[in-house]
């Protein structure tokens, strides 16, 4: 009996030492939390399953890296709040801007979007600037979007902010806003989800060109960021990235050379 207990204690001690050794290993994989927003066709839910271009891309990179975490689809404001406060968060697809450079390490770009202002096709007024559009009526955006940032920066006051991009589109279709500001990559599928077609709206003018990235929250190990970048670079070099992009957007990818933009510190 005493010898058996001795063997059990020895085995437990060895297991404990091994576990401590693994925890101290700087190359051990870090479990990430993967967050995205409902913005089709980049990312959205079909039933309870996340899908979309960016979701497929991240799922592919996950497989290369043996990352087991599930992708969570949350409202952008909530996802961004979580990623701004905690380490080991991958937030996608994230627009690159100066205000975020101190909070995230960016890998990409993974897509290029153009922010445009749209009107109903039946609307006969054709403003050519934000100021002119704001004089005609309100502009719909969703909370935390590049469109909202652009309008705030431009000083436009006549803005209606919704929680989701589809909600903003429905406001346009119902006449509750006069214009809609949205990234072009998402427009076709949002129209489909709203039960209409591209003939229902007309683009007026472009506000900004935006590069979208994988954003890793501050505190995520540099090695983890580098591993995800290498997986993306390999996928691009093999041609799978361009094929995925063209399948989802029916247009050629503009940039197939990824890079890392490390977060800036106050000294930078």
From TrEMBL:
Give a yes or no for keyword Signal in this entry. Answer: yes
Q: Name one Pfam family in it.
A: SBP_bac_3
Signal peptide positions (record):
1-19
Q: Where is the Solute-binding protein family 3/N-terminal domain?
A: 31-252
Q: What keywords sit in the KW lines?
A: Signal
Instruction: Name the InterPro entries for this protein.
Output: Solute-binding_3/MltF_N
What the entry lists under PANTHER family is as follows: PERIPLASMIC SUBSTRATE BINDING PROTEIN FAMILY 3 (PTHR38834), SOLUTE-BINDING PROTEIN FAMILY 3_N-TERMINAL DOMAIN-CONTAINING PROTEIN (PTHR38834:SF3)
> What name goes with this protein?
ABC transporter substrate-binding protein
High-level lineage: Bacteria, Pseudomonadati, Pseudomonadota, Gammaproteobacteria, Alteromonadales
